[in-house]
Amino acid sequence: MSSKLSVVPSRNGRKSGLRRLVYRPQTQSSKIDSDWRSTKDRLRRTVARVPEVVIKVTGGGSKSAGVLRYMNYISRNGALMTVDQSGEHLDGKDNLRDVHASWDLDLQRAHDKRGQTLHHSFNIIFSMPAKTAPDKLLEAVQAFAQLRFSRRQYIMALHTPETDPSRNPPPHPHVHVVVRAEDEDGYRLHIRKSTLRIWRESFAAELRARGIEANATARAERGVSLKGRGSAEYHIRERGDVSTAHARRFAEAADDLHKGLAEPKPWEIAMAARRRKVLKELARNAAALRYKGDVELAERVERFARELPPLDSERSKMQRALLEQVKSRLQPESVKDLLQPQEHDTQ
Q1: pTM (2 decimals)?
Q2: Which pLDDT score, from 0 to 100, does residue 309 have?
Q3: What are phi and psi of 209, to 5 degrees?
Q4: Which of the residues 39, 60, 74, 162 could staple to 121 if both were Cys, CB 3.0 to 4.6 A apart?
Q5: Which DSSP string corresponds to 224-237?
Q6: Could you tell me if residue 117 is left (phi over 0), alpha (psi between -120 and 50 degrees) or otherwise beta?
Protein backbone atom coordinates (compact mmCIF):
# COMPACT_ATOMS: atom_id res chain seq x y z
CA MET A 1 0.00 0.00 0.00
CA SER A 2 1.50 3.32 -1.02
CA SER A 3 1.53 6.28 1.33
CA LYS A 4 3.15 9.66 1.70
CA LEU A 5 4.14 12.22 4.26
CA SER A 6 2.47 15.55 3.57
CA VAL A 7 3.32 18.83 5.17
CA VAL A 8 0.43 20.66 6.81
CA PRO A 9 0.78 24.28 7.98
CA SER A 10 0.48 24.88 11.74
CA ARG A 11 -2.82 26.19 13.09
CA ASN A 12 -3.46 29.92 13.25
CA GLY A 13 -2.22 31.54 16.44
CA ARG A 14 0.77 29.29 16.94
CA LYS A 15 4.07 31.12 17.49
CA SER A 16 6.20 28.24 16.35
CA GLY A 17 7.17 28.16 12.71
CA LEU A 18 7.41 24.37 12.79
CA ARG A 19 5.19 22.37 10.47
CA ARG A 20 3.53 19.15 11.42
CA LEU A 21 4.08 15.96 9.45
CA VAL A 22 0.85 14.00 9.03
CA TYR A 23 0.63 10.44 7.75
CA ARG A 24 -2.03 10.22 5.02
CA PRO A 25 -2.77 6.82 3.46
CA GLN A 26 -3.43 6.95 -0.27
CA THR A 27 -6.32 4.48 -0.21
CA GLN A 28 -9.06 7.13 -0.25
CA SER A 29 -7.48 9.11 -3.08
CA SER A 30 -6.86 5.92 -5.07
CA LYS A 31 -10.47 4.86 -4.57
CA ILE A 32 -11.75 8.21 -5.83
CA ASP A 33 -9.50 7.99 -8.91
CA SER A 34 -10.65 4.42 -9.54
CA ASP A 35 -14.31 5.36 -9.17
CA TRP A 36 -13.88 8.28 -11.57
CA ARG A 37 -12.17 6.05 -14.15
CA SER A 38 -15.06 3.59 -13.86
CA THR A 39 -17.55 6.43 -14.31
CA LYS A 40 -15.75 7.67 -17.42
CA ASP A 41 -15.63 4.18 -18.91
CA ARG A 42 -19.35 3.72 -18.24
CA LEU A 43 -20.13 7.09 -19.82
CA ARG A 44 -18.11 6.20 -22.93
CA ARG A 45 -20.00 2.94 -23.30
CA THR A 46 -23.37 4.57 -22.68
CA VAL A 47 -23.01 7.43 -25.17
CA ALA A 48 -21.65 4.95 -27.73
CA ARG A 49 -24.75 2.81 -27.10
CA VAL A 50 -22.73 -0.32 -26.47
CA PRO A 51 -24.96 -3.46 -26.36
CA GLU A 52 -26.67 -4.02 -23.03
CA VAL A 53 -26.53 -7.37 -21.28
CA VAL A 54 -29.84 -9.08 -20.55
CA ILE A 55 -30.55 -11.37 -17.60
CA LYS A 56 -34.01 -12.88 -17.12
CA VAL A 57 -35.05 -14.94 -14.11
CA THR A 58 -38.02 -17.27 -13.65
CA GLY A 59 -38.91 -19.70 -10.90
CA GLY A 60 -38.04 -23.29 -11.60
CA GLY A 61 -41.25 -24.73 -10.23
CA SER A 62 -42.08 -26.30 -6.91
CA LYS A 63 -41.94 -29.91 -8.09
CA SER A 64 -38.83 -31.97 -8.68
CA ALA A 65 -40.22 -33.42 -11.92
CA GLY A 66 -40.64 -29.90 -13.31
CA VAL A 67 -36.95 -29.17 -12.79
CA LEU A 68 -36.02 -32.31 -14.72
CA ARG A 69 -38.35 -31.33 -17.56
CA TYR A 70 -36.63 -27.95 -17.83
CA MET A 71 -33.21 -29.60 -17.82
CA ASN A 72 -34.35 -31.80 -20.69
CA TYR A 73 -35.81 -28.77 -22.49
CA ILE A 74 -32.64 -26.65 -22.44
CA SER A 75 -30.55 -29.66 -23.54
CA ARG A 76 -33.02 -30.77 -26.24
CA ASN A 77 -33.50 -34.02 -24.35
CA GLY A 78 -29.77 -34.51 -23.95
CA ALA A 79 -28.84 -33.72 -27.55
CA LEU A 80 -27.08 -30.47 -26.60
CA MET A 81 -24.08 -30.42 -24.34
CA THR A 82 -24.67 -29.04 -20.85
CA VAL A 83 -22.08 -28.02 -18.28
CA ASP A 84 -22.33 -28.32 -14.50
CA GLN A 85 -20.78 -26.32 -11.65
CA SER A 86 -17.56 -28.35 -11.87
CA GLY A 87 -17.14 -27.68 -15.58
CA GLU A 88 -18.04 -31.27 -16.41
CA HIS A 89 -19.73 -31.79 -19.77
CA LEU A 90 -22.98 -33.73 -19.59
CA ASP A 91 -24.31 -35.54 -22.64
CA GLY A 92 -27.51 -37.54 -22.96
CA LYS A 93 -30.68 -37.84 -20.89
CA ASP A 94 -29.17 -40.42 -18.55
CA ASN A 95 -26.50 -38.01 -17.37
CA LEU A 96 -29.09 -35.32 -16.82
CA ARG A 97 -31.25 -37.72 -14.85
CA ASP A 98 -28.28 -38.60 -12.63
CA VAL A 99 -27.47 -34.93 -12.03
CA HIS A 100 -31.09 -34.18 -11.20
CA ALA A 101 -31.15 -37.04 -8.69
CA SER A 102 -27.92 -35.79 -7.07
CA TRP A 103 -29.55 -32.43 -6.32
CA ASP A 104 -31.88 -34.09 -3.75
CA LEU A 105 -34.55 -31.48 -4.43
CA ASP A 106 -37.07 -33.14 -2.13
CA LEU A 107 -34.79 -32.39 0.83
CA GLN A 108 -35.17 -28.64 0.33
CA ARG A 109 -37.71 -26.64 2.29
CA ALA A 110 -41.08 -26.76 0.58
CA HIS A 111 -42.63 -23.70 2.27
CA ASP A 112 -41.45 -20.47 3.87
CA LYS A 113 -42.48 -19.09 7.27
CA ARG A 114 -45.69 -17.69 5.82
CA GLY A 115 -46.64 -21.03 4.31
CA GLN A 116 -45.96 -19.99 0.72
CA THR A 117 -44.58 -22.59 -1.67
CA LEU A 118 -40.87 -22.28 -2.42
CA HIS A 119 -39.20 -22.95 -5.77
CA HIS A 120 -36.84 -25.90 -6.03
CA SER A 121 -34.63 -24.02 -8.49
CA PHE A 122 -34.29 -20.87 -10.56
CA ASN A 123 -34.10 -20.63 -14.34
CA ILE A 124 -31.82 -17.78 -15.46
CA ILE A 125 -31.21 -16.67 -19.05
CA PHE A 126 -28.11 -14.68 -20.04
CA SER A 127 -28.28 -13.16 -23.51
CA MET A 128 -26.55 -10.73 -25.86
CA PRO A 129 -27.43 -9.36 -29.33
CA ALA A 130 -27.11 -11.37 -32.52
CA LYS A 131 -23.59 -11.88 -33.89
CA THR A 132 -22.11 -12.08 -30.39
CA ALA A 133 -19.53 -14.88 -30.33
CA PRO A 134 -21.37 -17.83 -28.70
CA ASP A 135 -18.23 -19.42 -27.26
CA LYS A 136 -17.18 -16.17 -25.56
CA LEU A 137 -20.71 -15.75 -24.22
CA LEU A 138 -20.62 -19.22 -22.68
CA GLU A 139 -17.18 -18.57 -21.16
CA ALA A 140 -18.46 -15.34 -19.59
CA VAL A 141 -21.50 -17.07 -18.09
CA GLN A 142 -19.31 -19.86 -16.71
CA ALA A 143 -17.01 -17.31 -15.04
CA PHE A 144 -20.02 -15.43 -13.68
CA ALA A 145 -21.59 -18.60 -12.26
CA GLN A 146 -18.34 -19.70 -10.61
CA LEU A 147 -18.21 -16.33 -8.85
CA ARG A 148 -21.88 -15.88 -7.92
CA PHE A 149 -23.00 -19.50 -7.41
CA SER A 150 -19.78 -20.87 -5.91
CA ARG A 151 -21.52 -23.13 -3.34
CA ARG A 152 -24.50 -24.12 -5.46
CA GLN A 153 -25.28 -26.85 -7.94
CA TYR A 154 -26.22 -25.74 -11.42
CA ILE A 155 -26.15 -26.73 -15.06
CA MET A 156 -26.13 -24.54 -18.15
CA ALA A 157 -26.68 -24.91 -21.89
CA LEU A 158 -25.80 -22.59 -24.76
CA HIS A 159 -28.52 -21.86 -27.33
CA THR A 160 -27.90 -20.30 -30.73
CA PRO A 161 -30.51 -19.72 -33.47
CA GLU A 162 -29.43 -23.06 -34.94
CA THR A 163 -29.75 -25.08 -31.71
CA ASP A 164 -32.58 -23.37 -29.81
CA PRO A 165 -35.39 -25.89 -29.23
CA SER A 166 -38.29 -23.38 -29.48
CA ARG A 167 -40.44 -23.13 -32.61
CA ASN A 168 -39.49 -19.50 -33.23
CA PRO A 169 -35.93 -19.23 -31.89
CA PRO A 170 -34.64 -15.72 -31.15
CA PRO A 171 -31.79 -14.53 -33.39
CA HIS A 172 -29.40 -13.92 -30.51
CA PRO A 173 -27.27 -16.44 -28.61
CA HIS A 174 -28.18 -17.03 -24.97
CA VAL A 175 -27.31 -19.34 -22.11
CA HIS A 176 -29.85 -21.09 -19.88
CA VAL A 177 -28.74 -21.76 -16.32
CA VAL A 178 -30.68 -23.91 -13.85
CA VAL A 179 -29.57 -23.22 -10.26
CA ARG A 180 -30.54 -25.22 -7.18
CA ALA A 181 -32.39 -22.88 -4.82
CA GLU A 182 -30.48 -23.95 -1.70
CA ASP A 183 -26.71 -24.18 -1.41
CA GLU A 184 -24.64 -26.81 0.39
CA ASP A 185 -25.49 -25.29 3.78
CA GLY A 186 -29.20 -24.85 3.14
CA TYR A 187 -29.10 -21.10 2.41
CA ARG A 188 -31.61 -20.10 -0.24
CA LEU A 189 -30.87 -17.90 -3.22
CA HIS A 190 -32.81 -14.62 -3.02
CA ILE A 191 -32.98 -12.59 -6.23
CA ARG A 192 -34.04 -8.96 -5.84
CA LYS A 193 -33.81 -5.92 -8.12
CA SER A 194 -30.53 -4.93 -6.49
CA THR A 195 -29.27 -8.48 -7.08
CA LEU A 196 -30.03 -8.25 -10.80
CA ARG A 197 -28.27 -4.88 -11.05
CA ILE A 198 -25.11 -6.34 -9.50
CA TRP A 199 -25.39 -9.45 -11.66
CA ARG A 200 -25.71 -7.42 -14.87
CA GLU A 201 -22.63 -5.36 -14.01
CA SER A 202 -20.67 -8.52 -13.18
CA PHE A 203 -21.80 -10.30 -16.36
CA ALA A 204 -20.92 -7.27 -18.51
CA ALA A 205 -17.45 -7.13 -16.92
CA GLU A 206 -16.86 -10.82 -17.75
CA LEU A 207 -17.83 -10.18 -21.37
CA ARG A 208 -15.55 -7.16 -21.66
CA ALA A 209 -12.70 -9.23 -20.22
CA ARG A 210 -13.18 -11.50 -23.24
CA GLY A 211 -13.19 -8.71 -25.80
CA ILE A 212 -16.96 -8.32 -26.15
CA GLU A 213 -18.32 -4.77 -25.78
CA ALA A 214 -21.05 -4.90 -23.13
CA ASN A 215 -22.76 -2.44 -20.83
CA ALA A 216 -25.08 -2.74 -17.83
CA THR A 217 -27.07 0.45 -17.30
CA ALA A 218 -30.63 1.01 -16.13
CA ARG A 219 -33.33 1.74 -18.72
CA ALA A 220 -33.70 5.28 -17.41
CA GLU A 221 -30.00 5.99 -17.97
CA ARG A 222 -30.41 5.04 -21.64
CA GLY A 223 -33.61 7.04 -22.07
CA VAL A 224 -35.75 3.92 -22.45
CA SER A 225 -39.25 4.51 -21.12
CA LEU A 226 -41.06 1.26 -21.79
CA LYS A 227 -40.44 -1.71 -19.54
CA GLY A 228 -39.61 -5.00 -21.22
CA ARG A 229 -42.10 -7.82 -20.92
CA GLY A 230 -41.47 -11.26 -19.51
CA SER A 231 -40.49 -14.25 -21.60
CA ALA A 232 -43.99 -15.76 -21.37
CA GLU A 233 -45.58 -12.64 -22.84
CA TYR A 234 -42.82 -12.45 -25.46
CA HIS A 235 -43.54 -15.98 -26.71
CA ILE A 236 -47.29 -15.35 -26.71
CA ARG A 237 -46.77 -12.25 -28.86
CA GLU A 238 -44.43 -14.16 -31.18
CA ARG A 239 -47.25 -16.65 -31.80
CA GLY A 240 -49.47 -13.76 -32.86
CA ASP A 241 -51.67 -14.01 -29.75
CA VAL A 242 -52.44 -11.50 -27.02
CA SER A 243 -51.61 -12.31 -23.43
CA THR A 244 -54.19 -11.89 -20.68
CA ALA A 245 -51.98 -9.31 -18.96
CA HIS A 246 -51.62 -7.25 -22.15
CA ALA A 247 -55.37 -7.39 -22.78
CA ARG A 248 -56.05 -6.19 -19.23
CA ARG A 249 -53.66 -3.24 -19.58
CA PHE A 250 -55.23 -2.32 -22.91
CA ALA A 251 -58.73 -2.39 -21.40
CA GLU A 252 -57.61 -0.14 -18.54
CA ALA A 253 -56.05 2.35 -20.96
CA ALA A 254 -59.21 2.38 -23.09
CA ASP A 255 -61.38 2.91 -20.01
CA ASP A 256 -59.24 5.87 -18.89
CA LEU A 257 -59.48 7.39 -22.37
CA HIS A 258 -63.25 6.93 -22.45
CA LYS A 259 -63.64 8.58 -19.03
CA GLY A 260 -61.33 11.43 -19.94
CA LEU A 261 -58.84 10.61 -17.20
CA ALA A 262 -55.75 12.54 -18.26
CA GLU A 263 -53.92 12.60 -14.94
CA PRO A 264 -50.59 10.73 -15.06
CA LYS A 265 -50.42 7.43 -13.26
CA PRO A 266 -48.02 6.99 -10.31
CA TRP A 267 -45.57 5.03 -12.45
CA GLU A 268 -45.60 7.82 -15.07
CA ILE A 269 -44.82 10.38 -12.36
CA ALA A 270 -41.96 8.16 -11.16
CA MET A 271 -40.74 7.86 -14.76
CA ALA A 272 -40.55 11.66 -15.06
CA ALA A 273 -38.69 11.92 -11.76
CA ARG A 274 -36.13 9.35 -12.94
CA ARG A 275 -35.62 11.29 -16.18
CA ARG A 276 -34.93 14.51 -14.25
CA LYS A 277 -32.43 12.67 -12.08
CA VAL A 278 -30.67 11.20 -15.14
CA LEU A 279 -30.41 14.60 -16.83
CA LYS A 280 -28.93 16.18 -13.67
CA GLU A 281 -26.38 13.36 -13.38
CA LEU A 282 -25.38 13.67 -17.04
CA ALA A 283 -24.97 17.44 -16.68
CA ARG A 284 -22.87 16.98 -13.55
CA ASN A 285 -20.61 14.43 -15.24
CA ALA A 286 -20.24 16.58 -18.35
CA ALA A 287 -19.16 19.52 -16.18
CA ALA A 288 -16.64 17.32 -14.36
CA LEU A 289 -15.25 16.06 -17.66
CA ARG A 290 -14.79 19.61 -18.93
CA TYR A 291 -13.12 20.64 -15.70
CA LYS A 292 -10.66 17.74 -16.02
CA GLY A 293 -9.95 18.56 -19.68
CA ASP A 294 -11.86 15.74 -21.42
CA VAL A 295 -13.87 18.11 -23.61
CA GLU A 296 -14.58 15.59 -26.38
CA LEU A 297 -16.31 13.14 -24.04
CA ALA A 298 -18.09 16.00 -22.26
CA GLU A 299 -19.61 17.12 -25.57
CA ARG A 300 -20.69 13.59 -26.39
CA VAL A 301 -22.39 13.30 -22.98
CA GLU A 302 -24.18 16.63 -23.51
CA ARG A 303 -25.32 15.58 -26.98
CA PHE A 304 -26.52 12.24 -25.61
CA ALA A 305 -28.62 14.09 -23.01
CA ARG A 306 -30.14 16.38 -25.64
CA GLU A 307 -31.03 13.47 -27.89
CA LEU A 308 -32.75 11.32 -25.28
CA PRO A 309 -36.15 10.27 -26.68
CA PRO A 310 -39.22 11.88 -25.12
CA LEU A 311 -40.81 10.04 -22.24
CA ASP A 312 -43.57 7.65 -23.19
CA SER A 313 -45.61 4.97 -21.47
CA GLU A 314 -47.42 1.90 -22.67
CA ARG A 315 -50.73 3.45 -21.61
CA SER A 316 -50.07 6.54 -23.75
CA LYS A 317 -49.12 4.40 -26.75
CA MET A 318 -52.28 2.34 -26.41
CA GLN A 319 -54.44 5.45 -26.15
CA ARG A 320 -52.81 7.03 -29.21
CA ALA A 321 -53.44 3.82 -31.15
CA LEU A 322 -57.09 3.92 -30.13
CA LEU A 323 -57.45 7.55 -31.24
CA GLU A 324 -55.78 6.76 -34.58
CA GLN A 325 -58.21 3.90 -35.05
CA VAL A 326 -61.14 6.22 -34.37
CA LYS A 327 -59.76 8.83 -36.79
CA SER A 328 -59.42 6.28 -39.55
CA ARG A 329 -63.07 5.25 -39.21
CA LEU A 330 -64.73 8.63 -38.80
CA GLN A 331 -64.95 11.71 -41.00
CA PRO A 332 -62.59 14.55 -40.03
CA GLU A 333 -65.47 16.71 -38.81
CA SER A 334 -66.76 13.92 -36.59
CA VAL A 335 -63.31 13.32 -35.16
CA LYS A 336 -62.92 16.99 -34.34
CA ASP A 337 -66.26 17.00 -32.52
CA LEU A 338 -65.33 13.79 -30.72
CA LEU A 339 -62.10 15.24 -29.37
CA GLN A 340 -63.68 18.51 -28.24
CA PRO A 341 -64.96 18.63 -24.63
CA GLN A 342 -68.73 18.27 -24.57
CA GLU A 343 -70.90 21.04 -23.09
CA HIS A 344 -73.97 20.00 -21.13
CA ASP A 345 -77.11 22.06 -20.46
CA THR A 346 -77.21 22.79 -16.73
CA GLN A 347 -80.72 24.15 -16.70
Answers
A1: 0.74
A2: 86
A3: -65, -20
A4: 60
A5: --SPPPPHHHHHHH
A6: beta
